[in-house]
């Protein structure tokens, strides 16, 4: 494990976090510190809450119950119990344990909101939350429990429960244990929550936003892989790169389309396979199938959607999501900013484009395996068709994933189910949208990996013709990882996993960019 002093540090409170900073903490273990200006804001915010403790006027979250129980006035001597009861009752998640990186992202984003001074949290409570995150202690959060409105209540409550020294956590080594044991080992004292603090700890869109940030980083890499796999398939199928010419793309000035087409031009430049059929006498086809010819239109549309989702994420990262909030002039006001609709919509939108990007990839793979459409390649790229089946079932695997992705593309945000005795009568289901997007991104990674593997086999079968330097570098990366190239049938699953790992690690993009001498768009 990396020594703490060697880890990068992310400062919270001096400016909004970036998507990259969220991922650095969530996935790479970066440490968190709070800017001094933020501590001043936290102290001022708490002074407002402390001044209202004896107020005869009811203040939601300070001297009342919660949700549909907000009409109950809570006396001063029961308010510590009120906060404990809120967290214990709301830590009601169920199902599989949520991934560590998701919980770390959620914790960081809640820390960011707490550090604004608009929530009324005490300084000592926030310091304990930061210590919990920096120690590598991760509360056990469950798959089900959030409706994406009034915040990701159950997931955030499981984190708040850990601050109280209750529930279960996993330590820095991933071992699940009682929270009290982990806190004692880390030298962290649990906190006793006071007025407003329980609500401040759980009323945010942090879970769905954290998963959006993680997905955006993953999709940024996979969009480059999609252009690489498309270029490989087009070359392997004796397709044309002329349709990607800059002047043709400029006739439809969609930003993402232009970027994707530029990538395809660069990736296919210098291909001996392409040069072999430039002569009209050697190639009688007028135009390629849509899955080849329209690759930049589809991948470009995906890029533009990711760009839109990134803008939404950046705005949410600059937001204060809590209810009630403490305003700059010291008012305590109820609001609806905890509703996850803006985030939920783009999570669903991304699941749609992920499914379509995987779909066009699968169509290219299927074309390479069909003797009637592959322009001279053997059936299923088999060594001895009939005796050998080649990549026949690899395409089945792609098809099964693509079918699953289509189901995952059904929007979660169009659903709403009333809760809290109809007080919370419209919810975003953003957490559910984020959970299915995570599965969709993993599916896309696997579909693209199978296309890369299949296209590499097709390209090798075009020998002695050679692909472009960039495509050749990707084939070489597969070979360096143990891929033996075309040949008789063998156990195919490990080869697919090698390709999946190369895609997921960035090695496929790195190989292509290394050969090009510059980054892809």
UniProtKB/TrEMBL annotation:
<dbReference type="GO" id="GO:0004397">
    <property type="term" value="F:histidine ammonia-lyase activity"/>
</dbReference>
<comment type="similarity">
    <text>Belongs to the PAL/histidase family.</text>
</comment>
<dbReference type="InterPro" id="IPR022313">
    <property type="entry name" value="Phe/His_NH3-lyase_AS"/>
</dbReference>
<dbReference type="InterPro" id="IPR008948">
    <property type="entry name" value="L-Aspartase-like"/>
</dbReference>
<dbReference type="InterPro" id="IPR001106">
    <property type="entry name" value="Aromatic_Lyase"/>
</dbReference>
<dbReference type="InterPro" id="IPR024083">
    <property type="entry name" value="Fumarase/histidase_N"/>
</dbReference>
<keyword id="KW-0369">Histidine metabolism</keyword>
<dbReference type="Pfam" id="PF00221">
    <property type="entry name" value="Lyase_aromatic"/>
</dbReference>
<protein>
    <recommendedName>
        <fullName>Histidine ammonia-lyase</fullName>
        <ecNumber>4.3.1.3</ecNumber>
    </recommendedName>
</protein>
<dbReference type="GO" id="GO:0019557">
    <property type="term" value="P:L-histidine catabolic process to glutamate and formate"/>
</dbReference>
<dbReference type="GO" id="GO:0005737">
    <property type="term" value="C:cytoplasm"/>
</dbReference>
<keyword id="KW-0456">Lyase</keyword>
<dbReference type="InterPro" id="IPR005921">
    <property type="entry name" value="HutH"/>
</dbReference>
<dbReference type="GO" id="GO:0019556">
    <property type="term" value="P:L-histidine catabolic process to glutamate and formamide"/>
</dbReference>
<comment type="pathway">
    <text>Amino-acid degradation; L-histidine degradation into L-glutamate; N-formimidoyl-L-glutamate from L-histidine: step 1/3.</text>
</comment>
